[in-house]
Amino acid sequence: MVLTVLKSGPLATLQGRAREGLRHQGIPASGPADPLSMALANRLVGNPQQATALEITFGAAEFEFHQDTVFAFAGAAAGASLAGAPVPAHQALEARRGDRLAFAYPSAGVRSYLAVPAGFAAENVFDSTSTFLPAAFGGFSGRALQAGDVLTGERASGPALDLTTPAALRPHMSRTHILRCVPGPDFESIGPAIWPETFQTTNRMDRTGLELSGPWPQPQDGGQKPSAALFTGAVQLTPSGNAFVLLPDAQTTGGYPHVLQVIRADRHLLGQIAPGDRVRFLRRSVDEAYEDLRAKTDYFAAWLPGFAF
């Protein structure tokens, strides 16, 4: 037994590695909405980058440790409270049995990741422990965590390693975002006039996607097309006149115009875009997107060797 959930906040789930090779069966990747932040938290407690961690959405969560353990967190929360004292993100920390760890609402960003040595125990379904809420499998009985849930781990831990994330590698949380994109297969629906525009997220967001309002053109023919394959980072123009950006739990096919595709190197940013945030898109070619991916992977390689965005 590692900890008990005292308050789960708006949404807290267990997430591990993404599911791969199952999209043809209608099973999306799931996994952390911000895999970079989860990997950074796991790094501090000596875990593999995809070890099962707690994804905490919008803070307002509290946990009680049931054993002495090392832990770390990263993502939206710049800090938290442990036994009433402030503790920072991006640092390996020690909790004593009975200590309470509380997260406040983050001023920017959405999701924080809490990691403990060897990860949290979770249901492994389709070769992943990640919670997939729409189909209710994986994680903790396939559902969001609730007050009173008890999470277990693989092992207890010794003293914390003297580890902190290098300052230059800590993702910056902001209320404005620039997402690098390549044109999607239906880019002609919006045209180049879209690039200088600024869009704003609405309150419609979850782990399947987030809605963007702004000067989108009205889709023709009701915005319906034959269904085609989709994946995380797809930007679809809907009949409402708004667009949706797909996140890891999104459907695997869809019939709305697929106008933009967020490049792989920037998909981790999607997990930290909150309602009311402003978003702009930066056009990239396919070759530039590959170069961006190589450059970002190389940037983190010394601290997160082998990390795949």
TrEMBL record:
Source superkingdom: Bacteria
Keyword check for Hydrolase: yes
Transmembrane regions: none
Residues of the Carboxyltransferase domain: 24-299
EC annotation from Swiss-Prot or TrEMBL: 3.5.1.54
Residues spanning the signal sequence: none
Gene3D superfamilies xref list: Cyclophilin-like (2.40.100.10)
UniProt xrefs under InterPro entries: CT_A_B (IPR003778), Cyclophilin-like_dom_sf (IPR029000), PxpC (IPR052708)
Lineage of producing organism: Bacteria, Pseudomonadati, Pseudomonadota, Alphaproteobacteria, Hyphomonadales
UniProt keyword annotations, A-Z: ATP-binding, Hydrolase, Nucleotide-binding
Record-given protein name: Allophanate hydrolase, subunit 2
